[in-house]
Amino acid sequence: MTITTKPEIRLTRRVMGIEISPTLAVMNRAQDLMAQGVDVVDFGPGEPDFPTPPSVAEAGKRAIDRGFTKYTNASGMKPLRDAIAERYNRRYGTKLTTDHVIAGTGGKQELFNIILALVDQGDEVIIPSPYWVSFPDQVQFAGGTPVFAPSDPSRQFRPRLAEIEAVATERTRGVILNSPCNPTGAVIAESELAAIVEWCSARDLFLIFDETYEFFVYDGARHVSAIKWFEGHPETIIVVNSMSKTFAMTGWRLGFAVAHPELIGAAGKIQSHSTSNPSSISQAAALEALRGDESEVRRMFEAYRERRAWLVPALNRIKGFCCLDPDGAFYLFPEVKAFFGKAGIVDSQSFADFLLDRARVAVVPGIAFGSDDHVRISYATSLERIKEGVKRIDAALRKL
Ligand SMILES: Cc1ncc(COP(=O)(O)O)c(C=O)c1O
User: Fold this and answer.
1) 26 confidence band (pLDDT: 50, 70, 90)
2) 108 in ligand 1 pocket by Cβ < 6 Å?
3) ipTM of the shown complex
4) What CATH code is assigned to 14-43+296-398?
5) How many CB atoms lie within 10 A of CB 34?
6) How remote is the CA of residue 107 from the centroid of ligand 1, in Å?
7) On the chain, which terminus has fewer CB atoms closer than 10 Å, C or N?
8) Domain 54-291 classified CATH 3.50.50.60?
């Protein structure tokens, strides 16, 4: 019998519609075990295991020392927004200016601002699946309905226009793409992206393009930003990006969006009444990162590449694991359904529980990202720990 108690606080329908994912319970359990001193190999982290590059951290310290500790423009200081615009202009030949850019407290905030500015009650937003966990909840929070377009694992989960078209209705308001994708690592093909841009533009839909992991692309895969088509489709394309992963700056909370100035103005209005500007200190550090030589970023990239090259074949040698060679990001998304039906494992959650209990290895259940046949393994951890984790997984699964 289920006993339901009357909630003590009367919460809004808006917030009741949002779930703290129950699947993250396994990650919380892993953290509890680690806090008790248990040696858990943690494949959960969604953030780089490297420190922020010293030159960037120094710029933050200098900002404090020179008293750059006051409010800035609520949408970010002009030199930072200009540096972001110039970086795109240099790489893609765009003609972006300050007014095309907003900087905020993480890419997550800019996604949220943009979604709040574009999605009305009843609007449908198409999201290729598997997807990053916050997309559907942000759409729902805005009153919209997320509609999932399943990507094909036999095509490396790379999203295709046909899959998006198949779920479109007259209520469709826009599409959210994430490339390279968290959790699958899939990088959308340039030709497919071009077709999706045209398709959205012809239907007056928005296209949010989240390229948070743009720098981490391997083995000949090529990342192209949707900004490439911005001049021809300024009302359609919104690019969201972040300092978090590229520059190992997750805790500094600095991300940005690039879009039509009218939309950037709307996002700025929302931001001005919520958090105002992102931390002035983080803005100073981000400016240094964008103006710097990126040698530290390349060093991190090489480490991810080496780990990935070791880890994918090692996982595939474990009988029952089926792991694609992902194009990018720092995640693997292996299929584990061969283990279902054994030792109480019935889905991605119970598989993750099994690994935590029997192998002391933490992975994230795929159901959090829309697929119950998979788990997410982050290789943002040292090669030594990766090798230890694989040894433990192999030993635990052999006993099944
Ligand atoms: C796909 C994707 N987009 C956006 C973000 C937001 O990053 P931040 O808010 O740290 O800039 C993340 C973070 O995990 C992510 O994985």
Assistant:
1) confident
2) yes
3) 0.99
4) 3.90.1150.10
5) 14
6) 6
7) N
8) no
